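4.2 Preliminary Data

To establish feasibility before requesting continued support, the project team ran the inverse folding procedure on a target of 220 residues. The structure was first converted into the token representation described in Section 3, and no sequence information of any kind was made available to the design step. The complete token record follows.
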């Protein structure tokens, strides 16, 4: 992403590499424990996937949670909401459109439930931030769950209520009916895998990693 914080993060990463340091490759959202079973797709009882659409600030970070996750067929970065017939990064990053950076998670319900996907989502955001996420500010980085049917809406509200007592501030994450989703440009897809050092540096410099460790890693 073309953000000042990313530039600073890349500098931090370069210094770290030069000094012989490294970032942990086993952060909670990057663990491969649940992916240890290489043939999990053989256990899929219904090959029809369902979709969860989630906005959690920078879509790189939300997509990374679900990339190669057991039960997930694919995770796609893009732009959700809004009334325009199209959305691009150049348009959305201005904050002048009504789109949010978001991720569509295509998953097999027989392997992973919608509720579990939302639990993963909550644990990787600051749900009380109404102005963006961490160093990324503006409406395009605010959080939202876009439900595709009434069942998803019910689960979204349930999981929101389950975490509300863990914070002193009110939950700012919106729960909205799904309308539109536009796939982001190719260079944004699978960013954490294609640009691992830059991604980890960005996530650390933005403040997301520290928040997860400080807040969510203590929550069972």
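Position-by-position output of the design step:
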């Amino acid at each position: 992403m073309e953000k000042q914080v990313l530039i600073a993060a890349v500098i931090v990463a370069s210094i770290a590499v030069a000094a012989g340091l490294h970032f942990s490759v086993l952060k909670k959202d990057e663990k491969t424990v649940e992916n240890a079973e290489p043939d999990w797709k053989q256990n899929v009882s219904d090959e029809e996937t369902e979709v969860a659409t989630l906005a959690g600030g920078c879509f790189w970070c939300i997509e990374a949670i679900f990339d190669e996750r057991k039960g997930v067929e694919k995770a796609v970065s893009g732009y959700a909401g809004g009334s325009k017939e199209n959305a691009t990064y150049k348009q959305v990053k201005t904050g002048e459109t009504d789109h949010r950076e978001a991720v569509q998670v295509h998953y097999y319900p027989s392997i992973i439930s919608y509720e579990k996907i939302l639990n993963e989502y909550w644990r990787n955001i600051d749900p009380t931030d109404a102005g963006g996420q961490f160093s990324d500010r503006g409406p395009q980085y605010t959080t939202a769950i876009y439900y595709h049917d009434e069942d998803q809406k019910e689960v979204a509200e349930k999981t929101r209520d389950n975490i509300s007592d863990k914070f002193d501030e009110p939950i700012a994450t919106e729960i909205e009916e799904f309308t539109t989703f536009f796939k982001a440009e190719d260079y944004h897809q699978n960013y954490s895998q294609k640009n691992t050092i830059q991604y980890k540096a960005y996530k650390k410099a933005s403040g997301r990693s520290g928040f997860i460790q400080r807040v969510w890693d203590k929550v069972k």
